[in-house]
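Study the following:
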Amino acid sequence: MALSPSIEEYLENIYRLQERDGVARTKKLAVIMSVTLGTVTNTIESLERRGFVKHLPYRGVRLTKEGEAIAINVIRRHRLVERLLTDILNMEWTEVHEFACKLEHSFTEKLAILISKKLGYPKTCPHGNPIPTRKGDMVKDKSKPLTSLRPDEEGRIVKIVEESGRLLRFLSSQGLVIGASVKVKDITRSESSDTMLLEGIEYPIDAETGRKIWVNKI
């Protein structure tokens, strides 16, 4: 049975949060989905009854195998659309995520196969994140968050794990794009958050942003 775009969007975002934080917390999910906490709670209860998620009291939500399979399929379509928009329609990498969020629900696996073939079977989206295979396999790399680097250590940016236009526009303005090399100049620590100073970068990078930029250590 076909799922609504809303349900697919929930499962996709739960997967993204789960990959990043281990579980999807309802407060973060509410922010991403731009809905109230009560709406998220009701939807999670519905998803659990359908066997798509498992609620972990006081921790958050995790996908079941069935829910994960659906989420990975949505992510596959999403990232293929992003590549289509950048590679064929020449859209900026900072713009394609929002368009892909709408288009990912509108086409079948047959069309996804044709798009993948047309693009030469790309391995990653424009933001460096892996595109799942038809079987749902996801390539794992050895990259780590920028925050794992210490002063005087260098890394090469391989992916941006949050694809909001606002974040991508900021990173692009600072030259923090896929393939760019970065070197940590200094780290300022405080009770609220650590801040990184990067060589050649005008603005300091807070820890929350740094966790969204993944690098391979050079």
